[in-house]
Amino acid sequence: MTIAGTLARFAVQTHIVDIPPLALERAEMCISSTLASVAAGTKIDSARIIRELALEDGGAPQSTVWFKNHKLPVTAAAKVNAVASDAAASDDSDMRSIAHIGTIISTASIAMAEHTGASGMQVLEAMVVGYEIAGRIDESLTPGRMKNGFHGSFSTVFGGTVAIGKLLQLNEEQMSQAIAIAATSIGGMAIAADTSCAREYHAGMAASSGIQAALAAKRGFKSETGIFEKPRGFLSALGGTAIEDITKNFGDSWDICTDMAIKLMPGAHPFHAVAEAAANAAIEGNVHPDEIKEVMISAAQMKDWMAPHHPTDLISAAHSVVYFVAAAIVDRGFTWKHINKESMMDPKIAALQDKVIFDPHPVPLPDRFTHRHGGTVIITLKDGRKISNTCRAARGSGPTGVTWDEVDSKFNHLMPLSGFDANRIQQIRESVRHFRTLSSVTSLTHLLS
After folding, report:
1. Within this chain, do residues 417 and 301 fall inside the same structural domain, yes or no?
2. Which of 48, 113, 115, 344 is deepest in the core (most CB within 10 A)?
3. CA–CA separation, 189 vs 303, rounded Å?
């Protein structure tokens, strides 16, 4: 059997009784996180442009554009919502290679469920299975995909495809075809995502392409089901490794539990653990910025990241580990406020950025998963004292666990950016917290319109 066929069999034969409660809870947390991120991103120019284009195209009013009084076809609504989520750099991430799978499975699944009348439990089942298959494929692509310049959209598309396939009740042959179609549906260059609004454009393409792949397969469209393993196929083109692990040990663990990370601060997730280490060191040493001679970041994976100093907008701030560290030391933590211009122009943060250096000989990584290992920050003071702190995994991630208090804190901070009043926000929060009990997701999407 092909890899696509094996993945399809697992997807079709896995049902809610096979999924542990923690995985279902993480899916609910993922919905909360994505809604909050969309609320923060919906007014950003890139999200506005894609929304306007979709509205100009029009089409059947099937699914809600969140926080707006519009309905669009399922694929268009999911695309618009996914773009808004990623635009704010406040979505989710994956501990293996920072693919934003949660945004895609949330926006695509809820859009389709609103159209078909699916229940909350059916959506959670679809999301967990979709995340599992996208995660397994992307794990094989690590680190070749990023080294070759391809963005995470090359794997997140499978999350949307499989989740929609579950909601459409595809059989094994149809699901196999859907996965194969998805494998030839997406593009996205990492360099563009790191330096521009292409990051959120990729998310929109992954969400809409994933839905289209499942819909096409349901109608009988055929693709090459050996696309993963054949020469010049998906895995060889993207630098796949440990290919046999893609289809091993189904059900032993669940990627949405072990590797999904909810962003509890904005920006590129690989920097979150380093920012925590910086803040911890500053607190431990009761450090004042004027006392600092030098700040060293020691993390093997960071040498491959661009490190712009003095960012002036969301995109450059979200991709500057130097800014993360400087801001975390000055303000004893990196928070949502640091994406604002006021923080970027803070003279104390600006001055400290010029004192940040990188360890030329960091401890080598123990495996190929470069973003699972956090890093160390060493603050050297002018009097010669050194304060060091290491953080291997940021709060809100698989290794540290995720709590509802953390997720709710993010939700409460970002949701008012939607323009909704406190009563409506409270209703949405309660709906998400009890998502598995919803007989239809339309009770939630009605609140989002």
Report:
1. no
2. 113
3. 20
* Rounded-to-integer distance, Cα 142 and Cα 330, Å: 34
Q: Is the pLDDT assigned to residue 433 strictly greater than 60?
A: yes
Q: 427: buried, middle or exposed (CB in 10 Å: 19+, 13-18, 0-12)? A: middle
The whole-angstrom separation of Cα 136 and Cα 102 is 14
Kindly state whether residues 240 and 123 are assigned to the same domain. yes
Based on its alpha-carbon atoms, the radius of gyration of the chain, rounded to whole angstroms, reads 21
pLDDT 10s digits, 368-427 = 998 899 999 999 999 999 999 999 999 999 999 999 999 999 999 999 999 999 999 999
Residue 44, domain extent:
3-264+400-448
pLDDT at 394: 96
Judge contact between 133 and 159, C-beta under 8 A: yes
Residues 255 and 296 occupy one common structural domain: no
Question: In terms of domains, do 275 and 178 share one?
Answer: no
pLDDT of residue 304 exceeding 60, the answer is no
pLDDT at 14: 98
- For residues 156 and 225, membership in a common domain is answered with yes
User: Could you read off the pLDDT of 109-122 as tens digits, one per residue?
Assistant: 999 999 999 999 99
Spatial distance between the Cα atoms of 382 and 386, rounded to a whole number of angstroms: 9
pTM above 0.85, yes or no: yes
Distance CA(377)–CA(145), nearest Å, equals 28
Q: Which two tokens stand for residue 153?
A: 């959209």
User: What tokens were used for 295?
Assistant: 């700040």
Residues 205 and 328 in one domain: no
138 and 47 both lie in a single domain: yes
